[in-house]
From TrEMBL:
Belongs to the short-chain dehydrogenases/reductases (SDR) family. It comes from Streptomyces fuscichromogenes. PANTHER family: DEHYDROGENASE/REDUCTASE (SDR FAMILY) MEMBER 4, DEHYDROGENASE_REDUCTASE 4. This is 3-ketoacyl-ACP reductase. GO terms for molecular function: oxidoreductase activity. It holds the Pfam family adh_short_C2. The keyword Oxidoreductase applies. The keyword Mitochondrion does not apply. Transmembrane segments: none annotated.
Length: 256
């Protein structure tokens, strides 16, 4: 697979870990990396889906929760034992709970949101750094959200935790350079199961309000991740690539 400018992504023989890699954005990312030649290790909670996805992509997988510290260590060990290297880490697994006004938020679920959305990416990056990237280099891509830049109803916990992940991305980019590049991709509304409750009831209305005329597909985000993970983005670190169909500029859009 090559970029639109014909530059090779150069992932053949490299190894990647993708969390939340069996459906939605994570599945599309894992498939794009595999198509570009990477060896892929996927992680998700459902063991059957992990086995099926790993088999379909010709890779390996590990079932478990990124909220568990040992899962990060086991996932890293699996990639290193199976592939002998770990060049790319995509922190995609996330939770959008607790959903609703923050004054009604269950603080246990609030802490879980930060454990899954912020602490787990840090822990996985630490494992990848210590296991391979410190000596050999690599690329980390965190999946954030376009919503981290502003507030909105009922998504305060998700947006706040993803804003923290965005800052973590920049901090790690500075600390781990030049050996490791750390970037993020911030999707807008994408057609996934996790976001179904947002897009399904009024998809046509939402699409009509976007400059690019449709909600996102997981593959739209995967292409951005693929570029950031590859040598085509070799002089890019600490960046957040927004993939939102024009959500942030729609106030200036004149419908045709």
């Amino acid at each position: 697979m090559t970029s639109t400018h014909g530059l090779p992504y150069g992932l053949r023989g490299r190894a990647a870990v993708v969390t939340g890699g069996t459906r939605g954005i994570g599945r599309a990312v894992a498939a794009a990396l595999a198509a570009a030649g990477a060896l892929v290790c996927v992680s998700a909670r459902d063991a059957a889906e992990v086995r099926r996805t790993a088999a379909e992509l010709g890779g390996v997988g590990l079932a478990g929760s990124v909220a568990e510290p040992e899962h990060a260590r086991e996932l890293t060990r699996l990639a290193l034992s199976e592939f002998g290297r770990l060049d790319i880490l995509v922190n995609n697994a996330a939770t959008n709970r607790p959903y609703g006004p923050l004054m009604d938020a269950d603080l246990g679920l609030w802490r879980e949101a930060f454990t899954v959305n912020v602490e787990a990416p840090l822990r996985l990056t630490q494992c990848a750094w210590r296991g391979w990237m410190r000596e050999h280099g690599g690329s980390v891509v965190n999946i954030c959200t376009e919503g981290a830049a502003h507030v909105g109803p009922d998504v305060g916990a998700y947006g706040t935790s993803k804003a923290a992940l965005l800052h973590l991305t920049e901090q790690l980019a500075g600390e781990l350079a030049p050996r490791v590049r750390v970037n993020s991709v911030s999707p807008g509304l994408v057609r996934t199961e996790m976001a179904r409750f947002m897009w399904e009831p009024r998809e046509d209305e939402i699409a009509a309000g976007l400059p690019l005329g449709r909600i996102g597909e997981p593959e739209d985000v995967a292409e951005a991740v693929l570029w950031l993970a590859s040598d085509a983005a070799r002089w890019v670190t600490g960046a957040d690539l927004v993939v939102d169909g024009g959500t942030r500029v729609r106030a200036a859009h004149l419908p045709t």
